[in-house]
Amino acid sequence: MLKVGLIGCGFMGSMHANCYNNIEGVQVTAVADLRPEKAEELAKISNAAIYTTGKELIEKADVDVIDICLPTYLHAEHALLAMDKVKYVFVEKPVTLTLEEGKALIAKSKETGAQVQVGQVIRFWDEYVELKKIVESGKYGKIINANFRRISPIPTWGWEDWLLDLSKSGGAGQDLHIHDVDYVLSLFGEPKNYYSVKTPNNGYVNTVMNYDGFVVGVEGTWDLPASHPFQATFRVVFEKAVVENAEGKFLCYTDAGAEEIKIDKVEVKGDGYKGGNVSDLGGYYNELVYFCDKAAKGEAIEKATVCDAVASLKFVLEELNFKG
Ligand SMILES: NC(=O)c1ccc[n+]([C@@H]2O[C@H](COP(=O)([O-])OP(=O)(O)OC[C@H]3O[C@@H](n4cnc5c(N)ncnc54)[C@H](O)[C@@H]3O)[C@@H](O)[C@H]2O)c1
């Protein structure tokens, strides 16, 4: 049995607890949250021990792996301590608030040999995994252009409104738009050059990346009213087809017509998950299955590594400082 220590029992911690609850051979045996009611709610799922702070859990709990679902500005200090305690650490995205903190995590993982996975979950999201396969197959010819878009109502669900504080979350650029940037970098690598614009509060970012022979637009915002639905979409225009994921449909358009792209989705229960930006456990489940499998086998984490995540953070921080 792989024993998980889960730090932070808010929105993302609840999602992770539900995922672990559906993974065979895995049990959340310790949870920590400053808000007792939040910790108790998740502890009930698997009869976990309860700690008040993340540091207390790291110090005292008997666990094999530690999963950090804390507000972003608290990631670095907890991840550094966790790497001294266990060999497998999961840190939610964005990996850290600053690049210096990100580099400190890389250094610590080298020093301790700890394997660190970061919650850059789009790399594990079914439609995006399928798109990567399609791109790599070359079956529709060269790419001409692509667009990735992620738009959300203003996130008011965070503990003490930490998401709305730029000095704690980095705003929509660092917290939301990083998902697509990380995916695009994993798919195409660094662009030759790019142009980026944003609003002063980092609530809206729009970047056009120039690759050899094609361009990619990446847009993200959370400056929308609560009534607006969350949307994560993409459209990739190839020489012979257009692959689009929008409005709940994953389609391939050719001159012959539009055809649904079928994917084998893992059915998971996900009881107890409420609200937020997704309607199922999707990529969250997939990324934690990968993490737990690597930890159980004692193998290296090769996807969504701390180095990948720090590279994506670096790119986003440069976009947010783009002067044109
Ligand atoms: N991968 C994704 O799609 C995705 C989606 C949402 C959030 N996130 C990330 O997950 C992380 C957590 O975000 P969230 O939305 O769950 O925030 P949240 O505010 O809902 O939850 C954070 C929890 O941490 C607790 N906490 C604060 N300080 C603590 C401490 N020292 N010890 C123990 N508990 C403490 C709070 O009480 C709160 O319950 C962030 O980095 C966020 O960017 C990722």
How does this model look, in words?
The chain has 324 residues and is of the alpha/beta class. The chain has a domain of 120 residues: 3-Layer(aba) Sandwich (Rossmann fold), CATH 3.40.50.720. The protein has ten helices and 14 strands. The chain has an eight-stranded mixed beta sheet, covered by helices on one side. The chain has a six-stranded parallel beta sheet with strand order 3-2-1-4-5-6, sandwiched between helices. A hairpin with a 2-residue loop joins strand 9 and strand 10. The longest helix has 18 residues. The structure holds nicotinamide-adenine-dinucleotide.
Features:
324 residues; 10 helices; 14 strands; 27% strand; Rossmann fold; binds nicotinamide-adenine-dinucleotide
CATH-scheme architecture of the domain at 2-121:
3-Layer(aba) Sandwich
Q: Which strand-content bin applies to the residues? A: 25-35%
CATH superfamily of the domain at 2-121: NAD(P)-binding Rossmann-like Domain
CATH class of the domain at 2-121: Alpha Beta
Oligomer: single chain
Read across the widest sheet, the strand sequence of neighbours is: 8-9-10-7-11-12-13-14
Query: How many individual helices?
Result: 10
- Overall pLDDT: 94
What composes the largest sheet?
8 strands, mixed
Envelope shape: globular
Helix content class: 25-40%
Distinct ligand kinds:
nicotinamide-adenine-dinucleotide
CATH topology type of the domain at 2-121:
Rossmann fold
Low-confidence stretches: 272-279
Order of helices and strands: EHEHEHEHEHEHEHHEEEEEEEHH
Which structural category do the helix and sheet elements fall into? alpha/beta
Distance between the termini: 53 Å
- Tell how many strands the DSSP assignment holds: 14
Instruction: Kindly provide the radius of gyration, computed on alpha-carbon positions and rounded to a whole number of angstroms.
Output: 19 Å
